[in-house]
User: Fold this.
Amino acid sequence: MNATITLPDPETMYQAIVDRDGEMEGLFLFAVKTTGIFCRPGCKSKAPKRENVEFFANADQARAAGYRPCKRCRPTELSGSVPAWLTQLVDAMDADPTRRWTNADLAAMGLSPVRVRRWFQQHYRMTFHAYLRTRRIGLAVDMLQRGSDVTSVALDSGYESLSGFRDSLRKWTGQSPTSIKQGEPILVERLLTPLGPMLAAASDAGLCLLEFADRKMLPEQFERISKLFQQPILPGTHPVLKRTAEQIEQYFAGERTEFTLPLRLDGTSFQQTVWKKLLEIPYGQTSSYGKMADELGKPTASRAVGRTNGDNRLAIVVPCHRVVRSDGHLCGYAGGLWRKRWLLEHERKHLSL
Assistant:
């Protein structure tokens, strides 16, 4: 089954403009004849009159018609990516993950500490300095589990004293260095993609989370997996996360159509059955909730299949983006319909090469 990616009806699109409906992001762009500018559906500019509006599927079509992009909503830029003003800081953090940043350091880079804090609260649900602390703890946990002694780990992780390290470790994980060595936390790492940053979480048992960092339900997902697996969740590195980053990069480069990663698909029997059925949808093709329900022998369970599809914790790898409505049109996607559309078009393009 192939998705028919067509524009919604004009009146629906115009109402989305009036309502500044961000949920319609990625389904269309609109241009204003009187200004010569094209925008996203959720643009905060004053809604134009209906007779002055044209609709387009993408920026290339709008440009070909002679329109230029709006400087306010920036319709040619992908949502969710790291903003240009923050990239220097992110690169510096990656180069030295144990550095203790101060507000003065941010100001020296020309950054507003308040603006940085708000961005991290929005995308990670914690302040910038809290993120740095949990990241250092994650690195420390990784070193402890690799067999390093506690004193060396404390110093290499940027802590000035062993007692301070022990207190911080217990605060963030609820465990001592000794129990950390014997246990197995879930480690989280940030991956950069053309569709914006993603957060991947894994342990020795496999990948248990892969989500776009700006997903509204992300905090709830972390709470669920923490309760489900009874393990602390910390920033850090892991071989499974490294493999995930490599394969995701290959996917976006059009070089990979299947993933070979250990997956933790823990859930109810029905959930596991649906998620495994998602894995059977071929690259570049689509299915529907109704068709999946029929194939599972539960023809009346299409809504339950839809809910379970929405509960999928492994975006892209377990391809819930390949599920569309029975008429072939796009339907809900937790990462945003604009991403769903992009992924389907990306797969079709590379499938035909």
